[in-house]
Amino acid sequence: MRRSKVFSLIALALNHLLDRDHGTAIRVAHLALDSADGLASARVADRLLPLLRYCERVSAQGEPADLAHRLRAFTEHARWAPG
Q1: H-helix or E-strand containing 79?
Q2: pTM for this structure?
């Protein structure tokens, strides 16, 4: 159930990006990461990659950079977690 919520939040963040509502996309992505805390899932990590690519592309500072750092940490951990 928790992973489903995370998937929904990721999809919502991506929709905000498509609507060019970058601030809301970043806030929702942070919510997705908060909800995914302690969840080691390669599927979640895969779905976060488009958000990571966006953050790496738009800025080296500020909110996108902070989010990119969190996304990178989560995806690296999830991909190497056992199970």
Answers
A1: helix 62-80
A2: 0.86
